[in-house]
Amino acid sequence: MSFLGQSTDRYSSSPWRDPEDDTLRLECGVFGVFGVRDAAAIAALGLHALQHRGQEACGIAAFDGNRFHTERHMGHVGDAFTGADLVQRLPGALAIGHTRYSTAGGAGIRNVQPMFADLETGGVAIAHNGNLTNFLTLRERLVQEGAIFQSTSDSEVILHLIARSRKAKIVDRFVDAVSQIEGGYALVAITNKKMIGMRDPLGIRPLVLGDLDGKPVLASETCALDMIGARFVRDVEHGEMVVIEETGVTSTKPFQIKAARPCVFEYVYFARPDSVVNGRSVYGVRKRMGHNLAKETGVEADVVVPVPDSGVPAALGYAQESGLPFEMGIIRNHYVGRTFIQPTQGVRELGVRMKHSPNRAVLAGKRVVLIDDSIVRGTTSLKIVRMVREAGAEEVHLRSASPPIKWPDFYGIDMPEREQLLAANKSLEEMAKFLEVDSLGFLSVEGLYDALEAGPRDPAAPQFTDHYFTGDYPTRLTDREIAEGRNEANDKQLSLLVSA
Questions:
Q1: In which residue ranges of the chain is CATH 3.40.50.2020 found?
Q2: Which of 34, 226, 307, 469 has the fewest CB atoms lying closer than 10 Å?
C-alpha cells in the first residue's frame, strides 16, 4: 500500500516512526465472507486473527442486498468493531475486511481500506494486501486522464482501473484492471452479487479459500479460518482469480502461467505460527530453521534463549538439535501498545524493556545462545544483547534464524533502505562488534531452503521470493526504473493534503 507522507519513490523504504525501532512490519491482512448471516461479525472475528498483519487501522465493508455499508477506523479491530449493534451498523450477508499497518506520515483514515466506488454496473468495495511496483506510473497516467484521487493508496488505483475499463462484465473489468498492475498483491472485493479473490501471478502475497458451513471464505492466512470455525479448502493459486456467487465458486487464470514464488518472509516472521502457508506449517518450517541454524553455527553454551515471540519456534529447533536446554530467558510484555514519545536518549534506552524483560534466574552466569528471527538494522538487537548482559550473562552468542538481510522489499514489507540494513554495510565481524556479542551467526540461504523442504535453491528460477537475502527481485521495479531514468529525487510529492 501507499501512504501519504512517505517517500513516494516506491523503491525506497518509508521513514519509520521511531528511529530506535527496527521491527519489520507487513502491510495488511484481508478477509472476506459470502452468503453468511451477520457477515460483518464474522469478518470482525477473522480480522482479529489477522491483527498481527496490521495493527494501526482496520475496516469492514458489507452489502445487505440493496446498499453497501462501510466502516473504517484507526486502531485495533477489538476497539473498532465491537458492541451489540455491529450487525445493525454493517448489515448483510457479504462482507470483506482489512487490517493495515501505516508507515510514518500515513494519511490517516482516507487510506484505510476497504475502499468503495459507485460504478455504472453497481458498487464495488475492495481490500488489498501488498504493493504495486508500477503504482506511481499508473497513478500519474490516471491523473493526466482526469482521475481524481481521494487517497494515496494502491487500492484506489485498482478501483480507477476497474472503473475505466470498457469491458461489459464486472469480472472482465477486474481482469482488465489487474492485467495492468505489477508487484505482489492479494485482493478481495465484493460487488452487488459477487465476491472476488485475486492473487498476483507469482503468489508473493498469500490468500486462502475456506468453507464455513458451506459458505465460501477468503483470508490472508489459515489462522483466520480457524478463528471462525471454517474449514480450509485450498490456497488460491498464484495468478488465480476466484469468483464467488450464489451458484458456487469458479476459478480462472487470466495471466500467462509462471512458476510460483511466494514470499519467504511469511515463514521467517510474518505469518502466525499456527498458520499453514502454501501447504507448509509455519511452525514446522521455523523449527527446522532452528535445527539447521544449530548445525551451521553451533557454539559451546549453557542455554538457548529466544527473543519472543517470533524467535521461539526456531529456538526450540536449535535447542533440540544442539542438545542445549531451552529456557525463556526473556519475557515479553503483551500489553504494550504504541511506543510512547521518548524525549531523551536515556528514556529511549529503556524503551526495549517495555516489550521485553530479562529473566535473571535463567541468564545469570550463563553462556547464552540468543535466537532471533532476523536482524534488520540491529538497533533493537543491540538493546536486547545489553539487557541480557546486564542480567548477568557471561557470554552472549546471537543467532539469526534467517540469512542476512541485505536488500529492501517493495512488495508490502516496511523495510529500511539498503544503507540502513546492517548486513548490507558491515562484515560479519563488524556486525558482531556493533552488536557487542561474543559471536554472531546467520542461517544460510541453503539452510533456509532446506527448512522449507523445497530442495536446493534454483538460481535460474528461485522457488521463493527471497530478494531481501539475495538481491534477486521477482518482478520489474517499473517505478524505480523510470525514476532512475529521469534522475528524479526520492521525495516526489503524492499529495498536497496533510490530514490531522
A1: 282-333+349-452
A2: 226
SS3 34: strand
CATH code: domain 282-333+349-452 is 3.40.50.2020
DSSP 195-232: EEEEE-TT--S--EEEEETTEEEEESSHHHHHHHTPEE
C-alpha cell of residue 489: 529525487
Cβ(74)–Cβ(106) below 8 Å: no
Say if residues 389 and 419 touch (Cβ distance below 8 Å): no
Q: Which three cell numbers stand for residue 299?
A: 557454539
3-state SS assignment for residue 87: helix
Grid cell, residue 10, equals 516506491
Model confidence over 98-144: pLDDT tens digits? 999 864 335 578 889 999 999 988 999 999 999 999 999 999 999 99
How many other C-beta atoms can be found within 10 angstroms of the C-beta atom of residue 390? 11
Q: Which of 30, 435, 366 is nearest to 199 (CA)?
A: 30
Whether 274 contacts 282, CB under 8 Å? yes
Q: What's the CATH superfamily of 25-261?
A: Aminohydrolase, N-terminal nucleophile (Ntn) domain (3.60.20.10)
Please indicate if the annotation marks 176 as binding a ligand: no
Check whether 373 is labelled as a binding-site residue: yes
DSSP string, 230-267: PEEEEEPPTT-EEEEETTEEEEE--S-------BTHII
| DSSP structural state of residue 44 | H
- Taken in order 273, 278, 279, 280, the sign of the CA dihedral is negative
Q: Is 85 annotated as a binding residue?
A: no
Sheet hosting strand 303-306, strand order edge to edge: 303-306, 367-372, 395-400, 439-442
- Tell me: the pLDDT tens digits for 158-184? 999 999 999 999 999 999 999 999 999
Q: Which residue type, as a one-letter code, is found at position 134? A: N
Q: Which three cell numbers stand for residue 351?
A: 524503551
Inform me whether the pLDDT recorded for 243 exceeds 90. Answer: yes
Residues recognised as catalytic: 28
